[in-house]
Design a protein that fits this description.
This protein has 7 helices and 20 strands. It is an alpha+beta fold and 337 residues long. Strand 5, helix 4 and strand 6 form a beta-alpha-beta unit. The longest helix is centred in the N-terminal third of the chain and has 16 residues. The termini are far apart.
């Protein structure tokens, strides 16, 4: 392991925006309470970003590496996505393998074709803490879900409707994306008591493009709090390059199908700021910004829908990435659908 000393962003500019979290919560958890994290409000009545001063959104995205858009989803959209996620869990096939998903090294999915070939399918992945040493579940299978992915954006009508909505297209346009395409999507459960830690990472580790043109969009369907595992960011860390890659292995003698190119970096926890957000928000995540989330130690769930967009204009999606487009599902272009 090696320590990364991440660059720090300057204080956010004023512009009619509001603070994400009370200063007491930031100073208690992060050591970076002096960094002001701002949010922008989305006017869903007009279904537009014009009132949000799009240039300011891009400025903050480039400075901090993430942006919070409040009120992005309507109450009905939150309810419908939440119900769709619950239905996925309820209707989980009995044939689903006890395949586990983790963000730490020595990942269970490294040897798992069920994971590797999930880019054009809807597949289920369980929490590592829900499986005993004998390989059997220790809790109810439905509650043991970590996530469902990775083609919800195309194969599930409700998630497809949101992913290819006009407001998503406008966000990507405001961020300067010219040929955005959806690479993958996930419904994350983060269930009470078993929802695991997501260790500090960069999304570009998994979905690398050259040059870097990757944006994640993350939608909490429950209020994301300090107690149930809200996102934590290291503002400005997207300026430090891509620290390691998660790639397919070409060695026929290797038991692992995918793996990291280098050991896990260590990041000072003082770099991170917790970002609690209300359900229905949209968090824009730069592909290189370092972020993480704690385990869900509360009695409340923290469901979320998320997907990743690459800009195919003048960039190359790495053929080494674990997830690859297929003939059945090339990465669908946002503006064309």
């Amino acid at each position: 392991m090696y320590m990364y000393l991440l660059p720090r962003a300057e204080s956010a500019k004023d512009g009619g925006s509001t603070s994400v979290a009370p200063p007491t919560a930031q100073s208690k958890d992060s050591g970076r309470g002096s960094h002001s994290i701002e949010t922008f409000k989305f006017d869903f009545a007009q279904d537009t970003l014009d009132s949000m001063k799009g240039s300011s959104i891009l400025d903050q995205f480039q400075k901090d590496g993430f942006v919070v858009l409040e009120n992005f989803l309507t109450e009905d959209e939150v309810k419908e996505l939440r119900q769709a996620g619950e239905a996925l869990a309820t209707d989980m096939p009995d044939s689903v393998p006890i395949g586990q998903f983790s963000t730490v090294d020595n990942l269970p999915q490294n040897k798992d074709r069920y994971f590797l070939e999930s880019g054009d399918k809807i597949r289920y992945f369980l929490e590592t803490g829900a499986v005993g040493t004998d390989g059997k579940l220790t809790i109810e299978k439905r509650r043991a879900l970590n996530k469902v992915g990775h083609a919800l954006h195309w194969l599930h009508p409700k998630f497809k409707e949101i992913t290819f909505s006009n407001k998503i297209k406008e966000v990507c346009f405001k961020l300067g994306m010219e040929e955005p395409a959806i690479a993958q999507s996930m419904y994350i459960y983060k269930n009470p008591g078993v929802g695991s830690e997501v260790c500090a990472h960069q999304d570009a580790t998994f979905l690398y493009t050259e040059p870097m043109k990757l944006v994640g969009l993350w939608f909490p369907l429950d209020d994301a709090t300090l107690q149930n595992g809200c996102l934590k960011f290291a503002p400005g860390s997207h300026g430090s390059g891509v620290h390691r890659r998660y790639v397919r292995k070409n060695d026929p003698n290797s038991e692992e199908l995918v793996g990291y190119t280098s050991p896990a970096p260590m990041y000072p926890q003082s770099n991170f700021v917790p970002v609690p957000v209300a359900k229905g928000s949209c968090v824009l995540i730069h592909g290189q910004v370092v972020h993480q989330s704690d385990p869900n130690r509360s009695s409340e769930p923290r469901h979320a829908y998320t997907f990743h967009v690459i800009d195919k204009k003048n960039s190359v999606y790495s053929p080494e990435n674990w997830l690859q487009p297929t003939e059945e599902l090339p990465f669908p272009l946002l503006f064309d659908n």
